[in-house]
Write a structure and sequence with these properties.
The protein is 49% helix and 13% strand. By secondary structure, it is an alpha/beta fold. Strands 9-10-11-12-13-14-15-16 form an 8-stranded parallel beta barrel, surrounded by 6 helices. A hairpin with a 2-residue loop joins strand 1 (202-209) and strand 2. Helix 2 (36-49) crosses helix 3 (56-79) and helix 3 (56-79) packs across helix 4 (83-107). The longest helix has 30 residues, at 5-34. It starts with a helix and ends with a helix. It binds phosphoenolpyruvate. Phosphoenolpyruvate is lined by residues 442, 601, 606-607, 645-648, 666-670. Residues 442, 601, 606-607, 645-648, 666-670 line the site of phosphoenolpyruvate (PEP).
Length: 684
């Protein structure tokens, strides 16, 4: 069916917003995950401004979790998966980030907000504007995005999430323990540690007056009316440059940059937090370097008593100089890390702790330092990224095959049920549901008796060779009940009628009563089907009678409800369905209500080929359950099986049945072919 132009425009607009919001979150989460040290340092700056002193492990866990959630939310939004949840998570993040970035834009407590790490540095004002735009797009997605289907089928989305969380977690793990897999800072592999020979940095001082920030060099510092904000080093193009001084304060840059051959620098950017447990390894490393004609030099981000204390503990056999901690943190990530240079050119960098393995097995002494492979040259990142993208493509391709998709259907539901069944064994059962998954066929006025018997036998045989994960029922014309009952195995296949009279017996020519149906061996009866309401004028009043008689004769009513197209379009569908349930069934006791199976069948979807989306079905089923809970309580509502009906077929059953409140289907057209009907049964 051709979609109206308005719908097409909305779909395009939603996808555009999804891509913009999704990719912004993806890049932001990725840039943080790839360099957890950078994010940790930036978060530390914020905490310092607010006077908060939190344990580093806690801050690190928060930083990595935030990066993963941001990345995963971005991927889910960009692919249209978990549509509602993903957008609400993004909205929750924005509700914190928007006021925070407004404050940062106005007050400038930190020089840059760190949204995209070192990958992309944007001004605080630009960050705020970006967040205003994102918030507007997220609000649009909340309003208009629900009805636009995503790329991945619902049953497989949890697998997409697992893979998507794993990717930034691996990035963060390597980034924290070894080095970021991609280096966006000035001291990349291949650059000269001290810039062009002898060239050191110029310090630039940032001051603020009346909300305006300006940079000054040392000889042009402003008067007292300016407030100091920050200081930064500006060097040559290849790196920021930094000053190294010995203990007497003498600058060592010239001497270090003149050094030939290979040098191993131990960089301890913050000797205060340097793990003492690894301090002894530094001298072992020194011996290893010495045996390979590599000069070892320490550079610490401290002077005076802090440096002296560290030296007195580490007792380094190599010279230790000092430099500004900020510059050292830019050079290499980690409290204590190594930078290996050859002729001044950076060959590899890694944390000291990542060298532990080499110390442990005793091989370190013979292993050449020269041969250590850098992790931050982009190769490993490319490999990981390719594996991640390939997995996402494979998951997508898997979801195209209904057969494979079926394997994934209901896995989260099964896990939930497993958790509940575990609860049952405990003394206190918090939540217990007995509702069944059911697939019921409604043959309507189709097939002759011999044809119907043959079809029933075929379904019965197919079910025997296969363990269905749901109850299977066929509701057949009255004329078929007896012969079909004689041919099928009631333990495998349930039998039902499509209607019954609102009287028990008497002068009602042409009618079939509930006791008559029950006497054939049938156990179910469809009541209130929209075709009977529409063509035979069935009202809630007659339906109440029919339900009571069915129950009194041991039949289980499959009670149908659903709105017509006009009611869906004018937005009154929730009210309409609520009224049908209330008027048709709410005269029952809780015990009798517990015997009813409900079937939500939007009339506009019956026999039209137009299915309600899985989300529309889920929304309505949850609404119906809430209506029941209001009247009979949560337990009765949770135990009620609510089936979906309306152009349900093998290709869409899996997605519909994966929804937590959809407990199966009432199947019309597709119940008339054994293969199609079984395809739907197998969706469970
Ligand atoms: C029905 O009539 O109950 C029904 C769901 O029909 P179909 O599956 O053909 O839409």
């Amino acid at each position: 069916m051709q979609q109206p132009a308005k719908d097409r425009l909305r779909i395009v607009a939603v996808w555009l917003c999804r891509l913009i919001v999704g990719f912004t979150f993806i890049i932001s989460g990725w840039a943080k995950a790839i360099d957890p040290w950078g994010f940790l340092i930036k978060t530390g700056e914020y905490l310092q401004v607010w006077g908060l002193n939190l344990p580093r492990e806690l801050v690190l866990t928060g930083c990595v979790s935030l990066a993963c959630v941001e990345f995963c939310t971005g991927v889910l939004i960009a692919t249209g998966s978990l549509k509602r949840l993903a957008v609400w998570v993004a909205a929750a993040m924005m509700s914190v980030m928007l006021p925070l970035t407004l404050y940062i834009a106005v007050e400038s407590p930190v020089s840059d907000c760190g949204c995209f790490g070192d990958f992309l540095i944007i001004s605080n004002t630009a960050t705020f504007i970006k967040n205003v735009v994102l918030s507007a797009l997220i609000v649009y997605l909340i309003i208009a995005g629900r009805k636009v289907k995503g790329i991945y089928a619902a049953p497989i989305q949890w697998l997409q999430i697992v893979v998507t969380v794993a990717f930034p977690m691996i990035l963060a793990f390597v980034g924290y323990n070894i080095q970021p897999l991609v280096d966006f800072r000035p001291y990349k592999l291949g650059t000269n540690l001290f810039g062009d020979a002898g060239e050191s940095s110029t310090e630039v001082y940032i001051y603020r007056k009346g909300g305006v920030e300006k940079e000054f060099t040392l000889d042009e510092l402003p008067d007292d009316s300016w407030e100091f904000v920050d200081m930064k080093s500006v060097g040559d193009e290849t790196n920021g440059g930094f000053e190294v001084r010995d203990d007497s304060g003498l600058e060592m840059n010239d001497e270090l940059s003149d050094m030939d051959g290979q040098v191993l620098y131990l960089i301890v950017s913050d000797p205060d937090v340097q793990f003492l447990s690894r301090v002894h390894l530094t001298n072992m490393l020194y011996r290893r370097a010495e045996s390979q004609d590599v000069t070892m030099i320490g550079i610490a981000g401290a002077t005076g008593s802090t440096l002296e204390r560290w030296i007195s503990i580490a007792k380094p056999l190599f010279p230790v100089y000092s430099a500004a901690p900020t510059a050292l943190k830019q050079l290499v990530r980690g409290d204590a890390a190594l930078v290996y240079t050859d002729g001044g050119e950076i060959k590899w960098k890694r944390t000291l702790s990542s060298m532990n393995a080499d110390f442990g097995d005793g091989e370190w002494a013979s292993d050449s330092l020269e041969n250590i492979r850098p992790v931050d040259d982009g190769r490993y990142h490319l490999i990981l990224l390719s594996i991640y993208l390939a997995s996402m493509i494979v998951i997508y391709l898997l979801s195209l095959s209904p057969k494979i998709l079926r394997l994934f259907v209901g896995i989260p539901k099964k896990i939930r049920n497993f958790a509940h069944s575990k609860n049952e064994h405990n003394t206190i059962t918090l939540y217990h549901t007995m509702r069944k998954n059911i697939v019921a066929g409604n043959w309507k006025m189709n097939t002759t008796v011999p044809e119907g018997v043959a079809l029933a036998k075929e379904v019965n045989e197919a079910l025997k060779g296969f363990k269905a994960n749901c109850d299977v029922i066929i509701c057949v014309p009255f004329t078929h009940l007896c012969p079909v009952a004689a041919e099928i195995d009631a333990n495998v296949l349930g039998l039902g009628a499509e209607n019954c009279a609102d009287h028990t017996s008497g002068a009602y020519t042409g009618e079939i009563s509930a006791p008559m149906v029950a006497s054939t061996g049938a156990k179910y009866v469809i009541l209130g089907h929209s075709e009977r309401r529409q063509y035979y004028g069935e009202t809630s009043e007659t339906l109440r009678e029919k339900v009571a008689l069915a129950l009194a004769n041991g039949l289980t009513p499959i009670f149908c409800i659903g709105e017509v197209l006009a009611e869906r379009e004018d937005g009154t569908y929730n009210e309409v369905v609520k009224r049908q349930v209330e008027e048709g069934l709410f005269n029952l006791s809780a015990e009798d209500f517990g015997k009813i199976i409900l079937a939500y069948e939007p009339v506009w979807a019956i026999g039209t080929g137009k299915t309600a989306t899985a989300e529309q079905a889920q929304d309505m089923h949850a609404h119906i359950r809430a209506v029941i809970a209001e009247k009979y309580g949560k337990e009765v509502a949770d135990n009620c099986s609510i089936l979906y009906g309306g152009s349900c077929k093998p290709s869409n059953a899996a997605e519909l049945f994966a929804k937590p409140d959809v407990d199966g289907g009432l199947i019309g057209g597709a119940a008339l072919k054994c293969a199609d009907f079984m395809g739907i049964v197998k969706a469970f």
